[in-house]
Amino acid sequence: MNGFSLWPPTASEQAARIDSLFIGLLVVAGAILLLVAMLLLVFSIRYRRGSSARRGELPEFLRRDVELGWTAATLFLAIFLFWWAGATQLRASDAPPNALEVHVVAKQWMWKARHPNGAREINALHVPRGEAVRLVMTSQDVIHSFFVPAFRVKQDVVPGRFTHMWFRATKPGTYHLFCAEFCGTEHATMGGTVTVMEPEDYARWATAQPQEQDLPGEGAALFVSLGCSGCHAPSAAVHAPSLQGIYGRMVNLADGRTVRADAAYLRDSILLPKRDLVAGYEPIMPSFEGLVDEGDLQSLLAYLESLRGEISR
Amino acid sequence: MSGLTAERAIPDRPGRAENYLTAETGLASWLLTTDHKRIGLLYMAAITVFFFLGGAAAFLLRLELFTPEGDLLSADSYNRAFTFHGVVMVWFFLIPSIPNILGNFMLPLMIGAKDLAFPRLNLISWYIFVAAGLIAVYTLVSGGVDTGWTFYTPLTTAFSNGNVLAAAAAVFVAGFSTIATAVNFIATVHLLRAPGLTWFRLPLFVWAIYATSIVMVLATPVLAMVLLLISAERAFGIPIFDPLRGGDPILFQHLFWFYSHPAVYIMILPSFGVISEVVTCYARRRVFGYSFMVYALLWIALVGFLVWGHHMFVSGQSLFANLVFSFLSFVVAVPSAIKVFNWTATLYRGQIVFDAPMIYALGFIGLFTIGGLTGLFLASVPVDIHVTDTYFVVAHFHYIMVGGAVSALYGGLSYWWPKITGRMYPEAWARFAAVMMFFGFGFTFFPMFIMGFLGMPRRYHVYPQEFQVWHVLASGGALILAVAYLLPMGYLAWSLIWGRRAIANPWGATGLEWQTSSPPPTENFDTPPVVVQGPYNYHPEHEGPPAMDREPHSPQGGQPV
Fold first, then answer.
1. Which of A174, A178, B130, B472 is the most buried (most CB within 10 A)?
2. Domain check: are A223 and A202 in the same one?
3. pLDDT by residue (tens digit) across A284-309?
4. Confidence check: pLDDT of A212 > 70
5. What CATH number is attached to the domain comprising A165?
6. Are B151 and B169 spatial neighbours (Cβ–Cβ below 8 Å)?
7. Looking at A163, A190, A208, which one is the last position of a domain?
C-alpha cells in the first residue's frame, strides 16, 4: 500500500479487464498525441519564417480527401473504442446468482457493513478471495460513493434507494476504501480498508465475529415487534395481503397498474403505504416512516425475500 | 529571431488623435457608457478581480495539499475554499472571460458594425454581472459554502451548514447576465453584418461566439430552474430532491448536468475561435478546411446537449443509459479532433512566426489535445467507473478549461492588445510568459492524471501518504503557473504607459477589426466597411505565402471604393 508506484494494485477480476482497456486507450491516445506533437514540431521548424522550404498551393487531394479521411477515421476509431468499452462493461454487469451478499449502509461519515451470517463491521470490509461478492448499499443521509481503487469499482450510495455492485477479489491483501462522492465536512476521512482473505481464513474470521442474528432473522423479529404480523400474518383477522412469496412477484394495484414487488416497491409500501395500493384492499396500513431506519428496512426486506422460499431462487 | 522582430518594427506613429478611450473622460463616461469597447474593458476589470479571488482559493488548496495531513486548513475551510474556487472560476471567470472581454470588444469590429445590437442591454448585463459577483463575495464573507460547485442534493438542501442560498442567488443572477449577453451577440451577428459579409465569410471567432451564445441561451435557463428548486427545498422545505419525503436526489444531477455539460462547451468554444484567428495570422496561411471548422463548432454545440449522462455513470443510472451516453460522448469527440487536425494542417506550407500569441496557440493545441484524449478514457464506462471523482477528472477538465481556455484568453489578449489599447506589449516578456505557462501548467496538472488513476479521490484535504509525491509536484507546478499568470498582468499594465504605439494593423492580419485605427474611434469605422471576400486571405488563392515577405495578404474588406 505504500511506496512509489505508477500503477494501482490489481486485486479483482474486473481490475485486470479494465486495465487492459486502459492500456489500449493509453496506446491509442499516446499515438494520436505523438502524431499531433510531431506534426506541430516538424511544421513549426520546416515552415518557420525565412526557411527555404517549398510553399505554394496545397494539393487538391490534401484539401478534400485528407479532411474527409481523418474525419471518417476519427469517427470509426470513436465507434471502435465505444464498442470495446461497452463490451467490457456488459461482460461484467451482473453479479453471478450465488454471490455472497453483503449489506452496506453509509452515513456521515462512516461505512457499516453486514455479512450474511450477521457479522458486522465499521469502516472495514473482509471478503474471501475468489468468491463473487455483491454489495447491496444504501445511505442514511447524503450521497456517498463506495470506491475500492484496487478493484477498479465505484458505486454511488444513494439515500432512498438501493444500489448494487459486485466484484471478485483475486489477491489477498489490504486495500483502500474511499468515499468518492463529496459528502460534507469529514468526507476525506470517510474510508477504511478492504481486506481480501483466503476463503478458509474468511470463514474463520466470520465465525469469530460476535454472532448476531442473520439479516432475515432480525427482520422476522422486527416483523413481529413492529406489529406487521398483526395484519399480515396468514392467521390475522384484519384484511391485509399475505406476504408469503410476495418478493419479486407481479401484483395488481387498485388503480389498475401492475408492478413487480421488488425491493424498491416493498420499501415504498412500508414508508408510503397509501401510494401504490394493492387491488382489493382498504388503505388502512399506517406509514412506518420514522419508525424504521435504513438498517431495519434492509432486515425487513431480507426477511420478505426469505419468505419466497428456496424454489424460486 | 531578434532580426525578424527588428525588421518588422514599424516607426512609431500615433493613432488618430481621438479614439474610444479619449473621446470622453471621467468616471461617469465609463460607468454609463454604451460603447461595446468600453464595456469590454469594464468586463476585463471585473473578471480580473474574480480571477484573483478564485486563484487565491486555488493557491490555498495547493498549499494545504503539500502534506498529507490537514495542517493549514481545517476540513471545513478546505471544503469552503474548493467550493469558492469552483463557483468563482466557472461562473465568474471562465464562462464570461472570452465572450465578454474579447467577444464584446471584437465582435462588432470583426463584422463591421458600429456597436452590438442592444448597447444598453450590454451595459445592464455588466451591472447584473457585478451584482452577482458581489453576492458571491458576500457568500464568502458570510462564511462560505461547503457543497462543491456541483451543489449535489440532498447534501446541499438538507445537510450543508454553509450559505447555500446566497451562493445559489449569485449563480442565478449571473445567469441573467449570461443570457443578456448571448441574446445580444446572436442579434448582432444576424442583423449587423457589413454588406458582403455572408455567413460563410464570417471569421471563425465570430462563428465560435455565435455557437457559444446559442448554447448559453438554451442551457442557462435550466440552471436557473434547478437553482430555484434547490432554494425552494432548502428555504421553504418543499420536497423535490429529498428522498425522505418522496423526492429524488438523482433528478437534481440530471438537471444540473443538462446545464453543466453544455457549460463546458460555453467555456471552450470561444477559445476555438481565438486559436483559429491566431494560428492563421502567424502561419500566414488560409485556415485549413474552413467549412469543416464551422460545422465542427455547430456539431459540438448541438451534440454537447446530449451527453450529460456521462457525469453519472456511477450514480446508479441504468446500464443502457450509460451505454447511450458513452456512445454520444465518443461521437462528440470527433469534431474536436477535426479542429486539432485542421489547426495543425494550417501550419503546413505556412510562414510561421513565433510571436507570443502563436506560442500560446501552439500550447493550447497541445494541452487541449491531451485534455480531449483523456476524455476518451472518461467516455469509456468501465474506465470512468474507476477514475470518476478522482484527480484524473480534475486533471482532465483543467486541461480543457485552464490549459485550453485560459491559454486562449491570454493568447487572444496579446493578439488584440494593440487594437484594444493602441500599445504594443513587450514581445520578449510575452514569449517568456507563454512558455512558462505551458510548462507550469504541465507540472501542475499532469501528476494529477497519475494520482487519479492510482485512486486519489478529489475533494480530500487529507490523503494517504503514498500520494504525497504527486501532490508536491502539482503544488510546485502551481507556483510556476501562478507566476506565469501574474506576469502578463504586469507587462500588459506596463505597456499601457511605456509600450510602443501600435499602428492600425501591426500583425498584417486580414480581419475587419484591423482595418480601423488602433485604438478604434468610438463609432469603430470612419465609414461603414464593405466586405469583398472570406477571412484569412493571407496569400493568393492558388499560391502559398512567400518565405519572408509579409505581402501579399489581402484584407477581408475595408472602406468602400
1. A178
2. no
3. 888 888 788 888 888 888 888 887 75
4. no
5. 2.60.40.420
6. no
7. A208
Show which of A192, A208, A224 is a domain's final residue.
A208
Give the pLDDT confidence score for residue A225 in this predicted structure: 83
DSSP A222-281: HHHHTTHHHHHSTT-SS-----TT-TT-EEEBTTS-EEE--HHHHHHHHHSTTTSPBTT-
| B423-466 pLDDT tens trace | 999 999 999 999 999 999 999 999 999 999 999 999 999 999 99
Mutation choice for B interface testing from A89, A151, A274 by most B CBs within 10 A: A89
Whether A40 and B365 lie within 8 Å, measured CB to CB: yes
Is the CB of B386 less than 8 angstroms away from the CB of A152?
Answer: yes
Which among A145, A150, A289 has CB closest to B314? A145
Beta-carbon contacts of B452 under 8 Å, excluding residues fewer than 6 positions away, are B387, B390, B391, B392, B393, B394, B395, B458
Q: Are residues A156 and A221 in the same domain?
A: no
> What is the number of CB-based contacts under 8 A between chain A and chain B?
272
For chain B, give the mean pLDDT: 93
Q: What is the identity of the amino acid at B458?
A: R
Whether residues A49 and B547 touch (CB distance < 8 A) is answered with yes
Evaluate if residue B1 carries a pLDDT over 70. Answer: no
CA nearest B40: which of B525, B500, B519, B361? B519
pLDDT at A311: 42
Q: Which domain holds residue A152?
A: 100-208
Q: List the CATH code of the domain at B35-546.
A: 1.20.210.10
User: Is pLDDT above 50 for B315?
Assistant: yes
Is residue A33 in some structural domain?
no
Arithmetic mean of pLDDT over chain A: 88
A178 → closest Cβ in B79, B147, B455: B455
Check whether residue A189 and residue A105 sit in a common domain: yes
The DSSP output letter for B143 is T
Within a 10 A sphere around the Cβ of B206, how many other Cβ atoms?
25
CATH number, residue A287: 1.10.760.10
Grid coordinates standing for B556?
Answer: 477581408
CB contact under 8 A, A29 and B351: no
Q: Are A174 and A253 part of one and the same domain?
A: no
Domain map (residue ranges) of chain B: 35-546
- Are A155 and A240 contained in the same domain? no
User: Considering the domain boundaries, does residue A236 fall inside one?
Assistant: yes
B472 CB within 8 Å of a chain A CB: no
- Tell me how many domains chain A contains: 2
Residues in chain A with CB shorter than 8 Å from the CB of B546 are 55
Amino acid at B162: G
Supply the ipTM of this predicted assembly.
Answer: 0.91
Q: How far is A107 from chain B (nearest CA, A)?
A: 12
Asked whether residue A164 is domain-assigned, the answer is yes
Collapsed DSSP state (helix, strand, coil) of residue A120 = strand
Whether residues A144 and A203 share a domain: the answer is: yes
Chain-chain contact of B366 with A50 (C-beta, under 8 angstroms)? no
Q: What is the pLDDT of residues B450-508, one digit of tens each?
A: 999 999 999 999 999 999 999 999 999 999 999 999 999 999 999 999 999 999 999 99
